[in-house]
Specification:
The chain is of the alpha+beta class. It contains 16 helices and 21 strands. The chain is globular and about 80 Å long.
Length: 547
């Protein structure tokens, strides 16, 4: 395969940047140590877990902080700082028993510089801090389900009580999120707002050095409590993160062995690395491997279906038959193959993505059936294509190729689709205020329960106060949602989720495009990276061959 001239232009740019980076060591981690290196093009805005709302920040804080519970690569809920937990029969009271061997990182914020033991009071402090409006934490919503009075209580050093206002079965999964990590009050008092750049946690790595926008170094926590087969974790001596915005230059660093890991794939080098069928180009197999698996990310088109909205009534999509016709009108398999090199799963199954408990591949709702689409249009009362008013789809520029593909496909069944490109910030605002009748969107799971997706269509969650951007409302759907939230057994909940999804897809307030995939590229001398459907990067079990 020939390498394009653009590739070599980026390569020259990369050489210049490499020289600049080599002059900014800042923190010497030693050539003899095993260091895991990756680039974060999106930068990291804070190392305070209270503000870990984007993937870059989540990955960074995940190495430094931990909470009561954690997820494995199969999204099973496991103990972490809590060694055990139980829930009351009514589903509103959780009791956690903490380990006694977990300490905070050594830091000057402590009187003797040595990290002290974590106790139940530390979680009460950390959770109250997240809820405090004064710090404006991005994770305050996690505790929307807790009781109004005394939601957190430390019975003693190792016993923590959390009380909910009403049952919410996915609540333990929420506690595995970075927002719910424990932080020491001494560090907050000592550093104040500077805690974002002087993090003190309990994780497998501790803070080393950070020059914002250039480099972040984390070093091995010698007091970490977890072990694997009797060996103390982590195996690595350090983690080094660079912040090179040019993704092609970062790719060249990865190929040269200056980075150990790369997540996702940029269009600028997609065809260089992947075959048309989404496999790794054979010429790179001696350098690195590709790990792929379902990603809990559903990409879709949302339709404003609020019967009280004049905006919704302006478009033929207020008719359920036209919404169904659009769903049948385009070939998702072809779209994935030619526009995404087969990376992803065609969106024919519903809102719940592969990899999420509750996904059912036997339930196909909308597949490519253009003739059925034409029949639905006629049934809706349109005798000729010129009778159908034009429909406007609003999207950001990065999805323009997919939108144009759909534009062409629906034109074959007589629908005139116009595309309006909007800046991301403006689109988010208009979507939240229900000002866009037809829009491109996606939903990435915050926690591994299908409720996370189905809550997008629950009537009380109408935007802007909630994530129901389509303003979908169905009495039966809402009844099933409330029923599911009262069920403790996951198997019973999933059965109810399936019934909800059937109601939802029949009403068609969305057009599912595809379910994304996690793509990871790892150098052949690096082991234990693995992958998971939430695309969480866990480095405590990673190790490298000695060079």
């Amino acid at each position: 395969m020939k390498t394009s001239p653009v590739f070599w232009i980026h390569y020259l740019f990369f050489l210049i940047l490499s020289a600049l980076f080599s002059c900014t060591r800042g923190f010497d981690i030693g050539e003899e140590n095993t260091v895991f290196r990756y680039n974060e093009a999106a930068n990291i805005s804070s190392l305070d877990p209270a503000f870990a709302r984007d993937q870059a920040t989540i990955w960074g804080t995940h190495q430094l902080f931990e909470g009561l519970l954690q997820l494995d690569d199969q999204l099973n809920l496991l103990p972490c700082i809590a060694r055990s937990w139980e829930v009351s029969d009514d589903g509103t009271t959780y009791r956690f028993i903490l380990r006694k061997d977990v300490t905070f990182h050594d830091d000057p914020c402590f009187p003797d510089g040595e990290g002290r033991r974590v106790m139940a009071d530390d979680f009460v402090y950390s959770f109250d801090r997240i809820k405090d409006p004064a710090i404006a934490s991005a994770g305050a919503w996690v505790f929307n389900y807790t009781a109004d009075r005394q939601p957190f209580l430390a019975l003693d050093d190792t016993t923590l009580i959390i009380r909910l206002a009403n049952p919410f079965p996915p609540f333990p999964e929420l506690l595995s999120m970075p927002y719910c990590a424990v932080v020491p009050y001494e560090a907050i008092a000592f550093y104040g707002s500077g805690f974002r750049e002087h993090p003190v946690g309990t994780g497998p790595f501790r803070f080393g050095y950070w020059k914002e926008g250039v480099k972040l170094v984390l070093t091995r926590n010698p007091d970490y409590f977890e072990r694997e087969n009797g060996v103390q974790l982590p195996y690595l001596d350090a983690v080094a993160i660079t912040f090179l915005a040019d993704k092609q230059a970062a790719f060249l660093q990865f190929v040269q062995g200056k980075l150990d890991f790369m997540s996702g794939i940029d269009p600028s080098y997609k065809d260089e690395v992947l075959t048309r069928n989404g496999e790794l180009n054979a010429k790179y197999s001696n350098l690195f491997q590709m790990i792929s698996q379902p990603y809990l990310n559903t990409e879709y088109l949302g339709i404003l279906v609020d019967s009280t909205s004049e905006k919704a009534k302006e478009t033929p999509l207020h008719n359920i038959l036209i919404r169904q016709a659009v769903n049948y009108a385009f070939d998702r398999r072809k779209m994935i193959l030619y526009l995404r090199n087969n990376i992803g799963t065609p969106g024919i199954y519903g809102m719940i993505p592969p990899g999420m408990p509750g996904f059912d591949s036997s339930r196909i709702y909308f597949d490519y059936q253009p003739e059925l689409a034409r029949q639905l249009i006629q049934k809706a009362g349109y005798k000729a294509s010129e009778e159908i008013p034009a429909i406007t789809l609003v999207s950001t520029s990065d999805y323009l190729d997919i939108c144009k593909y759909i534009q062409h496909e629906v034109s074959e069944i007589g629908i005139d689709l116009e595309i309006e490109v909007s800046p991301p910030a403006a689109m988010r605002e208009m979507k939240a205020m229900a000002k866009i009748p037809f829009f491109r969107a996606s939903w990435i799971a915050d926690y591994p329960d299908a409720e996370n997706y189905l809550s997008l269509f629950y009537t009380p969650n109408f935007s802007p106060r909630g994530p129901n951007y389509t303003h979908y409302s169905n009495i039966e759907y809402d009844r099933l949602f409330r029923k599911a939230m009262a069920l403790h057994e996951i198997s019973e909940r999933i059965d109810t989720y399936h019934k909800m999804e059937q109601v939802l897809m029949s009403d068609a307030p969305v057009v599912i495009l595809y379910y994304d995939m996690v793509l990871r590229f790892v150098r052949n001398d690096v082991h234990g990276v693995g992958g998971n459907p939430m695309n969480l990067l866990t480095l405590k079990r990673v190790y490298k061959d000695k060079r």
